[in-house]
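Hi R.,

Here's the chain you asked about this morning:
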Amino acid sequence: MASQNDYEDKIKTYETQASKQNVQHPLQALVDVEDDTLTQDNGESDPTAVPLGSRKALWAYLILCFSDLQITPVRYPDGELCVTSLADKLSGYRKVMLMVSIFLFGALALPFAGLKHKDYSTLTALSVLYCFLTTVQGVYQVIEASYIPIFMRSAGWFRSPRRLQVMENEPVAIRSEPESKTWRKGFNVSVLGLVASNVGGLVALLIGIILIYGKGSYVKVGYEPYLLAITIGGCITIIFAVIGQMLLPNIAGHPKPKGQNILLLPAKGWYRTLLSVPRYPQAFKLCIAWVLWNTGYTNYLGLIQSLFLEVTGLNTSSGIYQVWSFTSVILACLGSLSFLLLYPYLMYRVPIKSWAYTFLLFNTLCVLWGCIGISQSVTIGYKHAAEFWIQQVLFMTTSSALRAYNRALYGSLVPRGAEAQFFGLEITLDLATGWINPLVQGVIQGRTHNLRYPMLPNLFLIVIAAGLYWWVDVEAGIEDAKTAFHDEQK
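And the predicted structure, written out as tokens:
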């Protein structure tokens, strides 16, 4: 084994190379320089994930993330329950299922512009199309998220604690280089995917605003601009899906199981997933923490929006409210991108879970601030317009960063061969339990007539989620995930 001084000399050499190449991070050259001493024992890489290691694959993924223009605000779990299991059992067709869901989503949006009549049959047709759209969108989002751990494996995987103990006398930059490379890959894909999706949401919002202001308000022209906006969004989805389909490479996976009824595979898959709880406990703990946080996060967003309109006296057609809507998405993009830029500089100094604690702290403070305003004698607590804008900056930036962080961290704990099933589990649990908190909030709001009281359940959920994050043992979860899901079931 090389001496400590030898490794320190190598670090200095790479830093010099990085400065000459104008690399932002001083250790970025470690990723680019081929050296047997540094790249040996680079963790358990997955050969099937190698095609996703190229920039072309990343661009294709981002284009497909953008193509989901978020036309529908809600989802239904029925389709996700079936397809998430099939996406893993038939992982050799993962790309096919992803593309089918996107093309189908775009195609279902096309007829909306023609459904202008104000009669019962038209209303029924719109309702049916909307239900199909929300179901297909949920399926797409599950399969799209399942690519994140595969992208991470294309950069190599995490080494065993035994190997790291052998290397304990080496500099931290050398000892942790393969692991940091995997984390960077995961955060890059997760953050940029969310940003691309948010940009798609901004495009859809712009289309709607342009059509509404161009054709006139609802009072003058009815809801035709909204229907036309959905159809235009469907066309954009199909166009970008074609581009993404040509660029995204295929990855090897499981073929169609022989001698098994394909209709029974989803039920069998979910049953085996529930049986795997003792084998992958850290993944399930993080899943529950993520669901609890997301429930508190989404319900708080609805409350703060209603409280903003109540305190300022505005309505949803106000120009200031439109600015509020735009800045929410823009700040979400900036928050996750800031996390992506900061991580390379702090990855050797800040433990991986400390990021979650920081983001959750700001989330908790924002919700707690609203709870302080419950008392009529207190003059703060979202009782002035300026407080809402400050809250928006703090809450949206940290929440978006935490969403991106969650997807990569969860991806590191997901066993190979069950990516879609575990990400589908998170979304399905979120949908299955998400109705409880709004019901509780409605009861509280109905009795108190104060929008700040319903923030208490959200504060409770975020605090409980923080405790579960603390309970998750990331290193143990990574070791558990090295046992492939289909190997565990044998």
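Residues 14 and 29 are 6 Å apart (CA to CA).

Let me know if you need anything else.
M.
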